[in-house]
Structures are given as C-alpha cells and as structure tokens.
C-alpha cells in the first residue's frame, strides 16, 4: 500500500514503557493488594459478579514470574468508536506475548464483538503488526458496536473462544464495552471455563476515568487535534474580524473535550453541559450568556469570536431534556399514528396536542430545521439521536434573533455574522500523539502481563501519567470496582459509571477563573499541530486537564 512520509517515519518510533514493564519479561511479577469494593451498590453487584467481585488491585513489581513464559493464544477485540492509539494497544499486547513465548499467538476478532459471536478472526503476524504500529484508526481488524448481552450471544462467545483455542480475550473499548468485558469474565468462570477476559480503557470522550484510570486512551490526541483546528479558526477570526464561529465538539455524555480544548485555546465562550444542568439553565438563559459576550465585544469594536459547544448539550438543558423524553415516549407509543402524518406541518400540529404545555411551547419556538431533526433522526430504539441535532446552529440562530431585539432596543450596535462547524470524526483516527502511542503500548503490554499471570475481570491500568514514562505505574484494576447499578431499558443493570466534568475539580475551576476575561478580551492561544519530533515539552506533554488534576 502507499504510505505517507510521516507514516513511514512513525514506524520507527519506539514507544516508551514504565520501568516495571521494561524488565526482562520473566522478572515482571504481580503484587496483589487488599480486596476491593465497588463505588456503589456493592450488594447488588455481588449478585451479578459472584466469582469476580472484590478482586484486589494488581501492581507490577520486580520479581520471579514463572507463568509469564507459558504459551498463550489470545483474542483481541476493538469495540465501539475509533480512538487514536488502538493499534498500539494491539502492538503492546503482541510484543508482550512474543517476549513471553515466541510460540504464543494473537488473533484479531474482526468487526468488534461480533467477531467473537460469529467466529470471524485473523491471526496477527509480525509483518501485519508492523504495518500498523504508531498509526491511527481501527482498520487493522475493524470495530463494531455489537453488545454481547443475550444468552445466545454469551453462549456463542464461549463456544467460539473454545473453538479458537483462546486462553484469553482482550476487549479494547469504553465504559459499555468494559462492562461487557466484566460480564463476559463472570460468564466464562460461571461455565467452568478458564478463558480470561481483560479490558483496556478507550474513548476520546474522556468519560472513562477514575482514581486508577487517569485518562482513557485517544483523548490526548483527539483534543490536541481539535485544539489545532480551533486555534486555526481563532487566528482566522482575529484576522478577518467579522465572524462569530460556533463549533460543536464531540462529547455526548460529558464535556471533557470542550473543557480541555478551552484550556488549550482560550476561546470567548465555552459551554459546559454539566454546569448548565447543575444551574438548571434554560435554553434562553444559555443564549443570553452568549449574547452578553457578543454585546460586550461589539462595544470594543470586536464583532468576532469563537464559541465551543459540547455535542450533548441539549440533553443537559432541563427543558430540552424533558421535551426529548416526551417526544421519545409519544412517538414510541403512537408510532402508527405518527407515521401516517404526511409532512412536518401535520406532525408538528399533532405533536403539540400530545406534549405538555411547556414542551409544546418550546417545540414551537425552535427553528424549523432543529424541530425536524428532533423528529426525523431516531435510533433503532426510537430515541432522538442527539449527536445529529445541530446544536451549534440552534444557538447561533437564537442568538441572532435575540441580538436583533437588543438592537431595536438600542442595547446592541454591532454586527453578527456567523459560521458553524462540527469537529468530530476529524479527531478519532489521527496519528496518535507520543503520549497516546506510549500509553497505549503500555496498556497492551500490561494486558499481556495480567493474562500471563492468570488474572481475569481486570482492566489494564497505567498511572502516574504526568511523570515521564519510565515513572509510570503499571498494573490492573478489577472491573467491578468501577461499577454501580443504573436503570437501563426498564431494569437495573451493572455498568461502569461515566465520569462527568466535576464543577469543583481543578480543571473546571481553572477555566472558570479565566472565562469572564476570555469572553470580552481576545485571549486566543494557537496550539498548532500535534508534534511528534522535538523536545519533550513540545512532543510528550499530557493534557492540561490531567496536569491540573494531578497538581
């Protein structure tokens, strides 16, 4: 295949490892701590995880480990959306297996979890692995969003794992995928199988983190990629001095991406979904905040600026959340009646008779294109696909209308020309930053050590990430330790708890201390492109969020 000059150069990059993983492989031992408890709902979780609940935290230390050289066959799954560094997790796992025993084999399960359910795999060889080292994407074996959740799927997974001769399965994914890993580990043990299951923390959204998982892989590269683009737009805005840019960023459940990009680029306005929900701000109040900054900047003859909007914002605005919930219920319960309506006008007229008065008023007040998106774009369960709602355009149009009113009242004398953007897929498959390349390789190698040491129901963990890589602390965390019970699809289910932006955290406080200044005074920062070669302060730095959290 044709490759770029950068891809060719990145093949030669040697990821850095923690000191404990740089030892001769037979000198990497596992130190186990005390039994652990889940973050909540321990008694209920024990019922689901009778065999795996309460396992101790594992840390790697220097010592004898005779089992680490045994011959192993391991299957690896890429689950969910892409994140930079996934190929390096596989590379770390592959290299660990081969260092342990040259006869060990790594099988890539194709297309995500369905590769295990449907028994579709490919053996990963040295030449195949070398093509993908330090590269972005999940194209080596593909990914998928299939969940292993029905009795038939669990049974097929075990049957096929046995057919393939697997000693272990590594699931690389986010919170839902690693919840799946925990359930699969329990199922295998409950059926008398010794097949181990290990997870790895992946998501660019940054919402799979806790005391022991300091960051999910891919977040570092994604936010640096988005920040480059935001910085470019800020520079353009400051050059042309005539546009307000509204930029929607990925992050449906949490605003970690928006917050980190704000810390890196210092835009005029950054909306944080968790704050909007905590303060119970209405859609109108959110628009008022934007207009307040626009008016103040216009008074300074600066009719331009940049606004960052988290993808999932509408679900955090109480009145919008209520509207979406009502629409989901009404359209699910009256699917036949709704599908018989001929056009949007008929749909809209019918819906306002079904909605509560506050929701009907809000629905009528929305721009027509946004209202259509609430009705047309639905997932297989009949729910609104929030990621497809053009929230940036909604805010832009409502701000424009509000500013026209202020102009009539003599309270605004500026001009308001706008541009809208959505940065999403641009960040998911970039060449991993040095940080992510190192971190992912370490996660993969750590997963090998966990497997070779006979552990199951763990997620690979690398801590102390603000230090140089040789000071990182490698090990594993029991998946049940990260879980609680949540109401999902009409029942209480065990899930890994999503980490939202905490308003009392150091990163948010650092942002909040400066945002009023950034709103009025042009304070843009231009991070530039992700750098792979040069001094560590340019190439190897973790995110600002991580540094603040660990300060």
Outline the structure in words.
Its EC number is 2.7.1.90. Diphosphate binds at residue 81. Pathway: Carbohydrate degradation; glycolysis; D-glyceraldehyde 3-phosphate and glycerone phosphate from D-glucose: step 3/4. Keywords: Cytoplasm, Glycolysis, Kinase, Magnesium, Metal-binding, Transferase. 43% of the residues lie in helices and 15% in strands. By secondary structure, the protein is an alpha/beta fold. The chain has two domains: 19-218 and 432-496, Rossmann fold; 223-427 and 505-538, Phosphofructokinase domain (Rossmann fold, 3-Layer(aba) Sandwich). Strand 6 (168-173), helix 7 and strand 7 (196-201) form a beta-alpha-beta unit. Helix 9 (256-265) crosses helix 19 (506-520) and helix 12 packs across helix 15 (357-365). The longest helix is centred in the middle third of the chain and has 22 residues, at 219-240. The chain is globular, with a radius of gyration of 25 Å.
> Judging by the overall fold, what is the CATH architecture of the largest domain?
3-Layer(aba) Sandwich
Number of strands: 15
The CATH class of the largest domain is Alpha Beta
- Backbone structural class: alpha/beta
